[in-house]
Amino acid sequence: MTARTDIDPEHVVLIEPVPGSGIPVHLMYVETMDGLYAPIGLRKPQGDGPFPIVLLTSGNGGGGMAWIRDAVANRGLVMERLLDAGYACAWLRYRTEVELGYHNGGRLVRDIRQGRGLFNRSPLEYEDEISIIEDVKTLPFVDGDRVGLVGMSHGGEMVLKITSEYHGAAVGVASEPAAHEFLALTPDETATVNEETRLRNIENMQMLEVDKVRGRIDTAMASERIATIETPILVMGRETDHLQGIFRTSYELLAEAGKDVEWVSYDHPLHGYIYPMRGDDGEYEVDAVQETAIAGVIAYLDRYLKP
Hints:
Layout: E1 13-16, E2 25-31, E3 37-43, E4 51-58, H1 64-74, H2 77-84, E5 88-92, H3 101-105, E6 110-113, E7 116-119, H4 125-136, E8 142-152, H5 154-165, E9 171-175, E10 192-193, E11 200-201, H6 210-214, H7 219-227, E12 233-238, H8 244-256, E13 261-266, E14 277-278, E15 284-285, H9 288-305
Parallel strand pairs: 4-5, 4-8, 8-9, 9-12, 12-13
Antiparallel strand pairs: 1-2, 2-3, 3-5, 6-7, 10-11, 14-15
Helix pairs in contact: 4-5
């Protein structure tokens, strides 16, 4: 085996081309709170910067660097739009969601034992993103004061969890935020339990109506979590989504708490419509609604991240 001398083992960066683009992706591993590493795929406009940066998340964690490479190659239209607008951007991966780990585990407490870290629980996926935010702020081409977060589905809930206890991002977009845990929602009979694992299956949980959601959340606990949010947030809904009531309730509680929050909702068949997919012909399958939604996201980010 031939040893490679062009890679710093403590700061691994591999660069590879992106289909249909002249701007490559920097595949990187970021150290998280407990010393494990999370993969990201980062791209930046031409030049030295410093650039504002937008961090992209979607759904549950896991998948590793293979997931990152696929997202860059096949869900990269949003990256192209961000690059055109002058943003650095990165797809993130993080550890797998822990069922009710946030709700039952409480805030992470960090201490020292025998000179090394000691935690009251394992870090969770949203805390991996906090580690990534802090890391990218140190990059020479990134303006650390201009970091934006865009999360979809579980990634949207992560935006709420992060901003509830961390104030190092300038703006957030929570698109279709599956925020049932953040809102302390008790599912109804449309959620089931896997008899083998005893973990909940909420894939088909029906929470379309705001009144239904309002009646099933712990409003006091949700409000306590929302009270500490300082980051401006755009909440995005989807008209026909079975969790639209959760999306809208997330916005309403933020608004009622006097937070800097806005709401927009689109009628589109794709869960994750802000992240168009590349089709079998190699072209992105994107329609006018998606183009409008992506342009709206960038316009919102511009208000907080552009000088």
